C-alpha cells in the first residue's frame, strides 16, 4: 500500500481534512473516508453522473477526480444543498413533481441542476436537457426531472 | 362435472382431446380422477404432493394461488397454465 | 364499488422523499460496519471453458487479504430442485451461477471471491488467482445453439415438454406449445397472410445502482445480510439454500435499492460474501463494477421470432402462428413461456398455435426485465399487424379495435380474459390529441403498438400499529423501488379515513415481517397494498370494539365512515379514539397477510412520432405518448412515472441498446458510454394517458402498473420508422446502420 497523503479541503462550506491513498478517487474519499454516502457510484468511469459534485463551482464526476486533487478546493455534495432544515427549491420540486423513483440518480441530478440554475436562472427545456445529459436516470424517463428543474427555476427567481 | 381443458402438450395423453369432463370438488380430486381416465397426466402436473411450481391452475378463468386445495364447482372450467412469477420463469 | 376516495388518486409527497433528495437514504453500498472488509470477484475471461485448476495461494499471500472463496467452499448441492421465487430451478444452477463449478459458461462467470482490507487490495488479489482453463467453443444465439453439433453447455440438460423430460439432450431446456382452434384451417380462410422473421438483441435493465451485498456471519452462527434487492425473502431463502442453513439462520435487511426492473431478483454476491465473512470473522461488502453488471448479472434474452397472421379483407384476423426461440443465457429460464402467451394477447383470434423454445447459450444467465418476454414478442406481432393494416388500407387503430381482446376472449394458453382494458386503451389512442395531430415535418412517421402483461399476486404481509396521536405505523416487506411505500400507505390511509401523511411506512428486515414475495410482476401496489388494506380493516374492527366499550354498546352497533366512528349521534374521529386506546384495552395492532386472487392484467399502448435523418439513419423521437390501463391509479404521479420510465426503456431497447458481442462471446460495449441508454437530451416529454378500467378482483380496482408500458414502444417505433423512412425493420435495435442498410437495400 502506498503512503497516504494528507488532504486539506472545504466540503459543503466546512473545512475538512483526510488521509487517502494517491490512487483513491474523490468519490471513494467522500464515501468511504468521510462517510458522505449521499454521492453515489453508478459506473466509476464518468458515464452515469451519479457521483456528481461541484468543485470550485464546476460540476465534476467525482469518480474521475482523485482525492488528492481536492487539496485546497471547495467541494459541494448533495449533503450541502439544503439550507439547514430547509430543503432547496430543487429538492422540494423533485418531491412535488415525483421526479425520483428509486432515487439513486437523484443526488447527482440535484447537484448538477443546482449548478445550472446558479449560473442560468431561466434555462429553456432544451438547455436543461443538454445540461443534464451526463446524468443517467433509468427509472423516470426524465420527463418529471426536467419539469422539476423548470419548477425550481421559477421558484428560485420569485 | 367440471370441464378440464388440457394444455396442448398434454392432449396426446387424452387421445388428442382438448377438454374432458371430470368429477371432483377440489383441484386435487380433479387431477386424481383425471389420472384414472388418462394415466400419465398427474405426474406432469404434480410433484411432492403439490402443483409443480411452474404450473398454475385457473378455475373459471381466474388463476388461483392455492393449487391442489382450491375448490371446484360442478360446472367449473379448469385450465392448467404456465405460472407467471415475479421473476425468471 | 365506491369511486369517491379521499386519499386514493391524490398526489402526496412520498414518505421516503426527504431522505432521498438530501442523500441521507442508505442504499446497499452505503453501509459501513466496524471491521468491514471489501470483496472482489474473479471472473472468467472465456465464454465457455472447463476449469482445470484454481490456485489461490498467491492471492492469499498478499498483505491485507483476509479470505478467499471458491465453489469448493459451498456445501455440495446435490440435485435438489428449489423454488426461490423464480420458478422451479435446480439448486446446482443457482449455485453454479454464483460461483462456477467445473465449467464457466459465459464471460464474466464468477470463479472466486476475495476479501481484503480495501477494495483495491481485493481486486489486486483476485488478479493473482491462477486459473487453468480448457477453452471450449461457444454458442451465442438461440438459432445457432439449437443446431446439431452446437457446443453443449450442460451435458445433463434434457429438453422438457410440459413437465416431461424428453430424451433429447441439447441446448433447448424447454419447449412450450400453446394452441387453440385450428390454425391451419384459420389460415385457409384468410385473404391475406403475412409471415415475418424478427431478431432482437440481448439488452440490460440498466439500473444505475450496481449489485451489492454486505454479509456478517456472526459468532452465534447467524448470517446477517444487507443488500439492494427486489426480494429480501428471496435473498434469505437462496442464501440459506446455497449455504445449506435453516432459513431462520439468515436475516436479510433490504437497503434502499437503486433500480431493479427484474434484474435484482437473482442472487449473485450474498453467498460469496457470507463464505468470506465466515472465513475472516469480519463483515464483508462486495459491490459489482459496471462491467460486472453488464457481463455477469442477468440481462434479458435476445430472441429469434417468426410471426404469422392471417386476415380477411375486412381486417378480421382468422389465424395466427408464432415460433419463438429465446436465449436463456447460461442457465435455463428465458421467459419464453410468457412471451409465447403474450405474443397475440391483444387479439381475439380463434385459431392460434404458438411454439416457444428456451435455449441456453454462452451469455450471462438472463433475468426478468419488466414484462419479461413480452416486449420481444410484441415487436414481432405488432409489426405484422401494422403491415396487414397497411396492405388492407385500414387504420392501424381500427384494425386493432376490430380484433381487440375483451372479457371472454380466449387466451392462447386456455383461460378466458376477465374484465380487461384492451379496447379502452385503443379507444384512448384513437381519441388522443397526439394520434390526430399533424406530423409537423418531413421524414417523420407515426406508429402505434399495444402490449399486455399478466401481473401477478403472490404473498405479502403487513402490520399496522396505532399511535396515541392518531397516526399509524405501517410495516411491510416489499422493497420500495419507485414509491410503493406511499402507494401502500395510501391504501391503508383510505381505509382508516386518515391523511396519507398520518401513515408512517417502513420496509423492514426478514425477521420483522411475514413472508413477502418480490417487488416484481407489478404486484406490490396490488398485493402488498391489499395486505395493508387487510391490516387497516383489522384496526377498524378493533377500534370499533374500543368505541363500543366507551359507549357501552356492541361493536356491531358502531359505524365507521370517512375516519369517524359513530353511534346514535355520538361520534369520535379516528385520532380521538386513538388517544383513548391505552385506557380502553391497550395497544392496537392490525395484521394483514394475503396471497391474493383477483389479479388483473394490464394493457398498454404507445404512440411514437419519429424523424429519421435520411443521410445518417439517426432516429429522433419527436413525440411519444404512453397509454395504459392501470385499473386504478393510487398515486397518479408515480403511475405516470412508471409509464414514462417503462416507455423510455422501451425506446432504448428499440433504438440503441444491445449487447454487442464478438465471436468469442466478449461483450464489446460493457460500459455506460458504449451501452448507450437514452439520456435527457435524446427524448421529448413523455405524455401519458392513464386509463382506468377497475380490476374487479381488487378492493380499490388496482391492476398494477410497472410492466406493460415497456411492451409496445419498440413495435410502435418500428411502425413509425416505416412511415418515416419507408423501410420495415425486423431487427432490434433499429440503430442508424440498420436503418441505412435497409434504405440502401430498397
Ligand atoms: S460513478 Fe462517476 S460518473 Fe458514474
Ligand atoms: S430514479 Fe432511479 S435512476 Fe433515476
CATH homologous superfamily heading of the largest domain in chain A: Beta-grasp domain
Specify the number of helices of chain A: 5
Question: What topology, given as strand order, has the largest sheet of chain A?
Answer: 2-1-5-3-4
The Rg value of chain A, from CA coordinates, equals 16 Å
SS-based class of chain A: alpha+beta
Q: CATH superfamily of the domain at 418-453 and 600-746 in chain C, please?
A: Aldehyde oxidase/xanthine dehydrogenase, molybdopterin binding domain
* Total number of strands of chain C: 30
**Helical stretch tally of chain C:** 20
Q: What overall form of chain A do the CA principal axes indicate?
A: globular
- Profile the largest sheet of chain C: 7 strands, mixed
Using CB atoms under 8 Å apart, which protein chain pair has the greatest interface? A-C, 63 and 64 residues
Low-confidence regions of chain C: none
- Most strands sheet of chain A: 5 strands, mixed
CATH-derived architecture of the domain at 418-453 and 600-746 in chain C:
2-Layer Sandwich
Walkthrough of the structure:
The complex is a heterotrimer of chains A (158), B (89) and C (746). By secondary structure, chain A is of the alpha+beta class. Chain A folds into two domains: 5-80, Roll (Ubiquitin-like (UB roll)); 89-156, [2Fe-2S]-binding domain (DNA polymerase, domain 1). In chain A, 33% of the residues lie in helices and 16% in strands. Chain A contains five helices and five strands. In chain A, strands 2-1-5-3-4 form a five-stranded mixed sheet, sandwiched between helices. In chain A, a hairpin with a 2-residue loop joins strand 1 (5-11) and strand 2. The N and C termini of chain A lie far apart (53 Å). Chain B has one domain: Ubiquitin-like (UB roll) (Roll). Chain B contains two helices and seven strands, in the order ββααβββββ. Chain B has helices at residues 27-37, 42-45, and strands at residues 2-5, 19-22, 46-47, 50-51, 55-59, 62-64, 77-82. Chain B has a five-stranded mixed sheet, with helices on one face. In chain B, strands 3-4 form a two-stranded antiparallel sheet. Chain C is α+β, with helices and mostly antiparallel strands. Among the domains of chain C are: 418-453 and 600-746, Aldehyde Oxidoreductase, domain 4, CATH 3.30.365; 457-594, Aldehyde Oxidoreductase, domain 4. In chain C, strands 3-7-1-16-13-14-15 form a seven-stranded mixed sheet. A seven-stranded mixed sheet of chain C has the order 10-9-11-19-18-17-12. The longest helix of chain C has 27 residues, at 524-550. Chain C is globular, with a radius of gyration of 27 Å. The relative contact order of chain C is 0.13. Chains in contact: A-C, B-C. One FE2/S2 (inorganic) cluster binds next to loops of chain A.
